[in-house]
């Protein structure tokens, strides 16, 4: 479970995120959407323990991220939009490194299975510069999933993947949710969000403007009834300048 | 271009000034200004221009010219670091497709290089000024600028020619034949001069260093090597001119060499663009990977990967971080290759020189010891397999389930071990010499001194790397992180950086050294020379006790460091 309570982040006088509160229970997939600069990445990074909140609390699996960061981080995985890999470790060695870092005692039999799931087996001895963008993304995801996190944070996870890779990635995300992980997924691809996510958190200028299932959001904003997610997004985030594309 | 670079410079200065509002950076600016005043102005004045005195010896011109020629050979044989040619990705995106001539692109590159050259020129001008009048300072500064500019142009030209020859097969090789032949001829002529006088040099070395130096100068002043060295001497002669008349007479030739190099490089414009694009791509990949210039190709030409020790799946997680950095050093190629070839090369030289004469052997041993001492102080600037490599990935580091102090400790430990292994390997050289000639052990200090050095090296390295990593953590906006090391045009900045970090380390060593001296005083009678290893060990314990809370504090700082402070510098 991921619990965010009045999370606020300021950079000097600039308010990046203001009083954000939401909960992601185990098995839920929450889609984090918002216009550019809304605070999605700031929020994700705070959940991952990368950024210190200015105020507010974040709990991962019931563990306070600020007071017990090591224990909390052991339960979560953050997969950024741009894979951050070590140029001099092979695919397999990346997983061995992560296994040791997260004290994954049964890593030896699990690594080949994970490589197989993410179609990385043919590249298990390759170095990151020898991988395509999509392969690097898959490796980053493999590293994130090895220690069976109870909270998974994904920032634009489908960037660089081919259609088969996209399908596999969706299956991977849903499988982790079925296994009990709480997933937060940030993406501009609203059809993906609609397909994968049980609930949606819409943020604008650092504040939550809607949170819940699509039905719950419509119930709270009746004027959005009958609209597509794209139109709901545009209406909620206040960009009235763009016209809907004719069918 | 003018708009691009002036606006870039103005905005960069603005962001630096804005950063100085942070108390941490402001204090550093003030301390740095004080240090610069002491290092560059007050110190040379007090010393009476010791550095300036070196310039005045007669040996310097031919010897330094030969040294520069041999150093330049490295660019032709191994290639200069590709950063020489590379453009920033944004520059490639905007400039290369634009209606900008290749020649304009080269000029862009040259202008960029000039910024570092000018700064370096100022630093060295002040260092070499001594107590001479300001006019000579200006003359020397101008001469230094010419020298650095010629070296930069030569390096750029060598990079393009070499890239052409190796990567573009027949057409590239055809274009590269003449410059490669010319350089090879010059180098060959100097080598011939030294080899032809080898016996005389060897005999002179028995009479001491000065005599050996004189014999080398005689060898270099022979007609053929002297003619080969003329272009290099022409470039550096104004730097070493003792008066205005000498400077004025040497200047036209130096300017001529500068113009010749400039014309040579801009005529390479056809090859420049392609080579620059490749270098830019290469550097972009390295920047993404946060690689240092010490790393070469990770795979051999046959595609083989260097094997690294297997990481056990059980044990403290922090060991994984240390393992990762050792993998970087071993797989990057340069450290491992340099360690082996350097050590083997020195041992071979030790054997040969020992056979030549006893005095030469003593001098060689002194040089090796000096080199080892330099590695202790300068090595931490070069060995960057620590936070300086990983801080560009701070966002990922912060997701690891480890407290900051463990991450920092692991980063420092790995590079300390690597560098200690490097210096211990160097210590094999005197061991080999002693095996060849046990009489070298005649001094009762030899073995205890050796043991004391072996104990002290990792402790001193730990201190120096803690200072380097601490600096990177405290001032991530100022420390060059993870990318290629800069070239000779930043030598002055590196000198000042080295001085500053050595000062900080010296402060940390006050009590350990004091304890060591006390130990020697109290135990010298009982233990004799073996009091020294004991002193180093006890001083080392105290140093470790000092470093422990320092690492804890750096760990807290790591936890508090904002990723946005680091991201803009990577």
| Structural classification of chain A | alpha/beta
Separate helix tally of chain A: 9
Average per-residue pLDDT of chain B, rounded, comes to 80
At the fourth CATH level, what is the homologous superfamily of the largest domain in chain A? P-loop containing nucleotide triphosphate hydrolases
Helix percent band of chain B: over 70%
Q: Give the second-level CATH assignment, the architecture of the largest domain in chain A.
A: 3-Layer(aba) Sandwich
Mean pLDDT of chain A: 90
Task: Give a verbal description of the structure.
The complex is a heterodimer of chains A (247) and B (570). Chain A is an alpha/beta fold and 247 residues long. Chain A has two domains: 163 residues, P-loop containing nucleotide triphosphate hydrolases (Rossmann fold), CATH 3.40.50; 58 residues. Chain A is 35% helix and 24% strand. Chain A has nine helices and ten strands. Chain A has a six-stranded mixed sheet with strand order 6-7-8-3-9-10, sandwiched between helices. In chain A, strands 2-1-4-5 form a four-stranded antiparallel sheet. In chain A, helix 3 packs across helix 4. Chain A is globular, with a radius of gyration of 18 Å. The mean pLDDT of chain A is 90. Chain B is 78% helix and 0% strand. Chain B contains 25 helices and no strands. The chains are: A alpha/beta (247), B mainly alpha (570). Chains A and B meet through helix 2, strand 6 and helix 3 of A and helix 14 and helix 18 of B.
């Amino acid at each position: 479970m991921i619990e965010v309570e009045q999370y606020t982040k300021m950079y000097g006088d600039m308010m990046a995120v203001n009083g954000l509160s939401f909960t992601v229970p185990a098995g839920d997939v929450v889609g984090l959407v918002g216009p550019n600069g809304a605070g999605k990445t700031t929020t994700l990074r705070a959940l991952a323990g990368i950024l210190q909140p200015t105020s507010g609390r974040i709990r991962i699996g019931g563990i306070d991220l600020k007071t017990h960061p090591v224990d909390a981080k052991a339960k979560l995985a953050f997969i950024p939009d741009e894979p951050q890999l070590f140029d001099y470790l092979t695919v397999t060695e990346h997983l061995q490194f992560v296994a040791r870092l997260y004290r994954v005692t049964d890593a030896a039999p699990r690594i080949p299975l994970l490589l197989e799931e993410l179609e990385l087996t043919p590249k298990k001895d390759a170095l990151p510069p020898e991988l395509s963008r999509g392969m690097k993304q898959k490796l980053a995801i493999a590293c994130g999933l090895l220690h069976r996190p109870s909270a998974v944070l994904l920032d634009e996870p489908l960037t660089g993947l081919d259609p088969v890779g996209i399908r596999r990635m969706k299956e991977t995300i849903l499988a982790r949710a079925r296994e009990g992980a709480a997933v937060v997924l940030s993406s501009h691809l609203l059809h993906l969000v609609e397909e994968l996510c049980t609930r949606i958190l819409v943020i604008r200028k650092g504040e939550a403007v809607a949170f819940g299932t699509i039905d719950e959001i419509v119930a709270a904003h009746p004027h959005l009834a009958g609209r597509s997610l794209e139109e709901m997004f545009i209406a909620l985030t206040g960009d009235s300048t763009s016209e809907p594309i004719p069918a | 271009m003018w708009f691009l670079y002036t606006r870039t410079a103005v905005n960069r200065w603005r962001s630096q000034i804005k950063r100085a509002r942070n108390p941490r950076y402001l204090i550093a600016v003030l301390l740095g200004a004080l240090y610069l005043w002491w290092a560059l102005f007050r110190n040379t004045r007090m010393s009476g221009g010791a550095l300036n005195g070196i310039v005045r010896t007669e040996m310097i011109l031919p010897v330094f010219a030969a040294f520069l020629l041999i150093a330049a050979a490295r660019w032709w044989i191994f290639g200069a670091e590709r950063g020489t040619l590379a453009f920033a990705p944004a520059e490639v995106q905007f400039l290369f497709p634009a209606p900008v001539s290749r020649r304009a692109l080269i000029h862009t590159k040259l202008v960029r290089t000039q910024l570092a050259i000018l700064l370096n020129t100022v630093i060295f001008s002040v260092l070499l000024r001594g107590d001479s009048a300001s006019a000579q300072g200006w003359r020397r500064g101008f001469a230094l600028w010419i020298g650095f500019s010629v070296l930069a142009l030569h390096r750029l030209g060598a990079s393009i020619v070499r890239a052409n020859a190796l990567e573009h097969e027949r057409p590239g090789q055809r274009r590269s034949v003449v410059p490669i032949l010319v350089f090879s001829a010059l180098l060959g002529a100097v080598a011939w001069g030294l080899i032809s006088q080898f016996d005389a040099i060897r005999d002179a070395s028995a009479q001491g260093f000065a005599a050996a130096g004189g014999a080398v100068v005689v060898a270099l002043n022979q007609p053929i090597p002297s003619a080969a060295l003329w272009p290099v001497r022409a470039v550096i002669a104004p730097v070493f001119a003792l008066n205005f008349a000498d400077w004025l007479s040497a200047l036209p030739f130096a300017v001529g060499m500068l113009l010749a190099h400039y014309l040579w490089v801009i005529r390479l414009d056809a090859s420049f663009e392609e080579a620059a694009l490749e270098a830019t791509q290469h550097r972009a990949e390295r920047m993404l990977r946060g690689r240092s210039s010490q790393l070469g190709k990770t795979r051999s030409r046959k595609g083989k990967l260097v094997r690294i020790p297997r990481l056990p799946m059980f044990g403290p997680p922090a060991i994984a971080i240390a393992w990762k950095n050792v993998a970087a050093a071993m797989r990057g190629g340069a450290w491992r290759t340099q360690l082996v070839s350097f050590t083997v090369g020195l041992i071979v030289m030790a054997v040969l020189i020992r056979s030549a004469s006893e005095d030469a052997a003593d001098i060689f041993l002194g040089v090796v010891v000096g080199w080892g001492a330099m590695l202790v102080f300068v090595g931490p600037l070069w060995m960057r397999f620590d936070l300086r490599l990983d801080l560009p990935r701070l966002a990922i580091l912060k997701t690891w389930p480890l407290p900051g102090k463990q991450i920092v400790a692991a980063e420092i430990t790995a590079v300390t071990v690597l560098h200690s292994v490097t210096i211990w390997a160097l210590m094999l050289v005197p061991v080999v010499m002693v095996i060849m000639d046990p009489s070298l052990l005649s001094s009762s200090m030899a073995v205890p001194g050796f043991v004391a050095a072996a104990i002290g090296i990792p402790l001193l390295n730990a201190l120096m790397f803690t200072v380097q990593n601490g600096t990177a953590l405290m001032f991530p906006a100022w420390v060059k992180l993870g990318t290629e090391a800069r070239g000779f045009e930043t030598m002055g900045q590196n000198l000042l950086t080295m001085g500053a970090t050595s000062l900080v380390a010296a402060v940390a060593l006050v009590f350990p050294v004091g304890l060591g001296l006390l130990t020697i005083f109290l135990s010298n009678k009982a233990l004799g020379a073996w009091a020294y290893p004991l002193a180093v060990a006890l001083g080392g314990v105290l140093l470790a006790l000092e470093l422990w809370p320092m690492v804890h504090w750096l760990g807290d700082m790591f936890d508090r460091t904002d990723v946005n402070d680091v991201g803009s510098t990577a």
